[in-house]
From TrEMBL:
Signal peptide: none annotated. It comes from Arcicella rosea. The keyword Hydrolase does not apply. GO terms for molecular function: ATP binding; protein histidine kinase activity. It holds the Pfam family HATPase_c. Its EC number is 2.7.13.3. The lineage of its organism: Bacteria, Pseudomonadati, Bacteroidota, Cytophagia, Cytophagales. GO terms for biological process: phosphorelay signal transduction system. Keywords: ATP-binding, Kinase, Membrane, Nucleotide-binding, Transferase, Transmembrane, Transmembrane helix, Two-component regulatory system. Residues 191-394 form the Histidine kinase domain. PANTHER family: C4-DICARBOXYLATE TRANSPORT SENSOR PROTEIN DCTB, SENSOR HISTIDINE KINASE. The chain crosses the membrane at residues 12-33, 153-173. This is histidine kinase. The keyword NADP does not apply.
Amino acid sequence: MILSVDIYSRNTWWKVAFLGFCLIVGIFSLYFTDKIVSKLEEREKQQIELYAESLKYTMTSDPNQDVNFFFEKIKKSNENNTIPIIHKDGTGYLTAKNIEMPEGLSSEGKQTFLQKELQEIIRDDNPPIELDMTLHKEYIYFGNSRLLDLLRYYPLFQLAVVLVFGLAAYLFFDASRRSEQNQVWVGLAKETAHQLGTPLSSLTAWVEYFKSDPQYDPEIVKELEKDVIRLDIITTRFSNIGSIPVLKPENIIETIETFMSYLQKRISTKVVFSLDNQLNQRNTVNVNRYLFEWVIENICKNAVDAMGGVGSLKITLSETKNNKIAIDIKDSGKGISKQNLSKVFDPGFSTKKRGWGLGLTLAKRIIENYHDGKLFVKQSELNKGTTFRILLDA
């Protein structure tokens, strides 16, 4: 059992390491792309500055000089179709480039619209380029290009892809582990049922022989027969593991009472059993009786161990607000510590020196996988006891 726990622990570490690797790749991608964005942002700024200088010289130079055509070439070489630009002249009049304006706006409407766009551009934290026109100053405001925005958000998208891939891989590994566990459970259960078959047949024949011989005490034979019947039930339980169990209406009160009567004679007489039926004539539940009894048995035996063979064990049946049957199994044992509450249903977990740590795990599988119900710790307090709750469809 220690070996199995180590293997599962190692698998968990592999998952954590894999997710950590995915996170590191995502962070590195984020850092690397941010560097590219910063360089592109600086390049676009230089492009706008060059555009602004060419615009300034074009507007202030002598139009009769041949140098003008040189500046026109600079302007054309720096023309862009992606970077949004708003030019504010000395009077505060706004003109725009690469900004779509709604059709049908008046001159005042266009200025109002550009004022709003200017506030959006300012939020990009790009300082405006100042044009000193001697008699007045003009400003060119520019935002981020579409490409720059895409690159800015691309690493976030990339990180999201890595995380989704990591999550998918984690779920795949987890599903593989669960599938492997299920195969082990099924194989072990089938082999156990097979191994019990031969000696059980022999024991059944011996019981029949003792019945026919008057020298044997009938009461002893009767109790022996009960144990043989119990072994047959256990064999049936193991046979049902791994296959789709047949659920049929069973009287839940009768089922629990029968088991309690059997268990009381085989445990300490210092354990007081009690049954509190609060159901309103809804005693029938669809269950597989063999497997359901196994669940009650595992929980009750754990409770008896927790009490050290001395205490009280109470089973309460009630109906919840959402029409489910609730079965509460309360003991007066040592309780479960907070750090162990999340582990009680884990395979291999046990606080007993000789415990296998499979009873509650198996019980949870039977209730949730085969009966579509719920099994959980309703309440636990150290040195006062624990209450397990089973929820089944009525």
